[in-house]
Design goal:
heterodimer; B: mainly alpha; MetI-like fold; 14 helices
Amino acid sequence: MWKLSDRRREALWGFLFIFPSYVGFMVFVLGPLIAVAAISLTKFDLFGGTTFIGMENLGRMLGDDRLKTVYGNTFFFTVFAVFFNLAVGLALAVLLNKQMPHALRNFLRSIYFFPVLVAHTYVAVIWQFLYARDTGVINYYLHLFGIGPISWLTDQRWVLPSVIIMDVWKNTGFAMLIFLAGLQSIPGVYYEAAQIDGASPWRRFARITLPLLRPTIFFVLVIFMIGAIQVFDTIIVLTGGGPGDASRSVVIYIYEQAFQNFDLGYASAIAMTLFGLILVLTLLQFWFSRRWVHYE
Amino acid sequence: MTLQLMAVEGAESVNRRSRTANRIHGGPAAALGFGFLLIGAVLVALPLVWMFSTSLRPSAESYRLPPQWLPTQLHFENYSAVFQSSVPIVALFLNSLKITVAVTLGQLVFCSMAGFAFARLRFPGRRVLFILLLASLMIPNQMTVIPIFLIMKALGLIDNHLSIILPGLVSAFGVFMMRQFYLTLPQELIDAAKMDGAGAWTVYRRIALPLSGPALSALAIISFNATWNSYFYPLIFLTSWEKMTLPQGIALLSGYMQSGNPAVVMAAVTLAILPILFVFVIAQRWIVEAFVHSGIK
């Protein structure tokens, strides 16, 4: 073992090792977090003359109808995108977990997973063409069934569903991957015992798979929710937030207030509300996961 | 004892029987499930197949319906059109590569050092400092972009790659991941080295680091992918063509050419996606594992 002076040296090395990360953390995370809270109390002017206005931005938010719209859009997107990402991902994982040759499972898993690696930007550029009203591939096939034509990206009612479909196509593979790993950690003995007792496949899923997978499902749920609430890339390239405000998300609104209107004070105030939401979600996750650890 | 064994054997044979029965019974259901999987896989692949085959056809045929899914022609002129367009795609590619490599290498060094310290070195305040760092995981980078913008403006780093690289070097997630890995190293190994008089640096450099290949490669994959694909920060910080990244360039190209020239846009997107596909095919196992790790803590 190291002697006392060695222990002091060890502590010194410890501080040295965390120094770069910690300086970065102070300058680019903690500092900015405090700054954003401070800026949210001001009418900020990039070119000098920032004035303290206290809670005025809060009053302005409460009266901002566009803010209500973008929050509504963000919630709509979050609820449905998260639901379908998880539901499809779980279904795929359960099907992939069935008996099949190893190479085949790997191949299918790779196809489902690949879109996760592709930038939202590229995905949106491709889907813009697929969604085109008169020339798009999707409307062509729907028309064969007597449906449409649907104005996917220019109809207020369809634009968010379009964003959600594309998002599920891109992201459900990640949910699938995590669920598959979770499923593979469930001992096969449980299923064999249930089979001996004559449990139907549905009962086996409801009574064994779902309860044992619950922590994984909850974890994926929180990850996807936090991601969905911050949706930006997906929408800005696909629709730019339009038509009107029909697909504008909170982060797009913050971005525009801050970097197009240069209203940094108001943008910071909105950012604070979003941060509050994410904080609540994270704390909920922490609280629930502790309860579960206690349970098992 | 023997009774128990017999019971187990009995259960196994029942199990074997029921499994074969299940296979026969579950035949149609299993086939249905497998059918869903195949149809789903085709649906997932189709947008990318369409992208590729459209990029190989003359632009005039991009709109022809019914759509042709497979590449029926091999017109590479769309690809040369990408290189001759007003978008300097090679420069954008190199910009993205430079930023991504710098961020990834930086994270590997800084996260492994901090992770090692938090896992294996004793210093006052270790717990508090670690929890504080961990708490920052829930601060989205959209939250902090406004003050960071002000910092970069004050430093004169707007439209400079450093404005993307510097904030990218900090990763609470990376530190956490490396710490979890170093906690799994056997303590005896480290104690033995200490006994031989090795200091903290030697233990890190000679023992911990050579063993951290799997963790480092997982972190490298996650970090590389996230930086290579990022759009939000470059959109705000990089304003001139000479400095922009590939996703920015493709989005702008698509805006210019969308109405007239989908084939050229698809050629550009294909060029952007092909390297990822190439790497994925080669390093599939590691990439999948890295993402599983990023999900399960």
